[in-house]
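Following the same procedure, sequence and fold were stored together, as reproduced here.

>
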Amino acid sequence: MIRRPNNGSPRAEFIFVYGTLMRGMRDDLLRAAGARLIGSGTIRARLYDLGPYPGVKASSESSDRVQGEVHRLLDPARALAILDRYEGLVPAAPARSEFARDVVSVTLDDGSKRQAWAYFYNRPVDERMLVPSGDYRQRLSQLVPDAHRKGEADAR
C-alpha cells in the first residue's frame, strides 16, 4: 500500500514515526534521511509489540490512538527511499513487504492536523501483543525498569 495522487508524486512531505525511529530511540535514521521534528501527535491505529520493534495496524475505532512524532522530510523522495529500505518495504512487491507505507491524518498535540506518511505492519498480528496505551515509549518504560534493576544487581 503506497498511495500516491494521480501525478505519481508523494502526497506528504511529513513522516509519522511511533517506535524505534523516534528521538532518543535506538535507530537514528531520521537524521540520515534528512528530517526535522515538527512535534508530537497521534494517529488512529492500533499499536502492537512485535518484539524488537513495534508495528501499527489501521483501525476504524476513533478511540484507537497511537502516540508518535511528526517530522518534516527535507527531501521526501530520498528520505522515503532510505526509510522504505529500513522498514522492509519493496515498492515493486508491497504485498510481500513487512511494512507498507500510507498517508494518514495526524492530530498534533496542539490540535492541528497534518497529512503524513506512516508505516503499517503488513502481516497478521497476535491480538495479545496489543499495546492498549498506543504509546511505545510507555511500553518500553514498563519493560526496561526490571531489566535495568537486574543489570544493576549483576554489576554489584
Remarks:
- Residues 1-10, 146-156 have pLDDT under 50 and may be disordered.
